[in-house]
# Entry
Amino acid sequence: EVQLLESGGGLVQPGGSLRLSCAASGFTYSNYAMSWVRQAPGKGLEWVSSINTGGDYTYYADSMKGRFTISRDNSKNTIYLQMNSLGAGDTALYYCAKASGTAAGAAVDLWGQGTVVIVSS
Amino acid sequence: SYVLTQPPSVSVAPGKTARITCGGNNIGSKSVHWYQRKPGQAPVLVISYDSDRPSGIPERFSGSNSGNTATLTISRVEAGDEADYYCHVWDSRSDHSVFGGGTKLTVL
# Structure
């Protein structure tokens, strides 16, 4: 079955860190760019970060740059999002997203179910 | 940074046609993707690259893109089409993905 399974979400204090993981299955993972997209409560979709097939090109939304790091392990069919210096504004449902091609800007044709991150003291 | 503007809401009667717009500076020069998100579910790609319909998406869904506006058109609207719809582009100038604010489609 083609799917993405996120994990690693949870409750974290302001200023803390969290590492999200996304395990892919059912397709040749290394052939596709991948992204993280989040949705805060009551808000719309917000792009977080993208990574190319080889993992050597990464892209970040301005508000995440310097705090978040995206990476991928093609041997494990998994991408990661290391999140540091978290604030209340980072509270959201974080989706793992598969691009339909090698380009980071390709249409997202597969989404995970998401993992919830809550930043609160 | 590049901005995509969508109307917050669109209402349509069953069987009629819904048009959801996505405005952006010279958006016609970019490839626009559209997603449908129902409550409690992950988004689903309904239109890619302006007007391509992924397999499994009804022919009632179509897209166009020209000038400063891209449009998602849903013909013969059904109650099951009620959802939030988002447009999405890649801005090559900033190397950023950009989502529109989303449009809530209500079927009357």
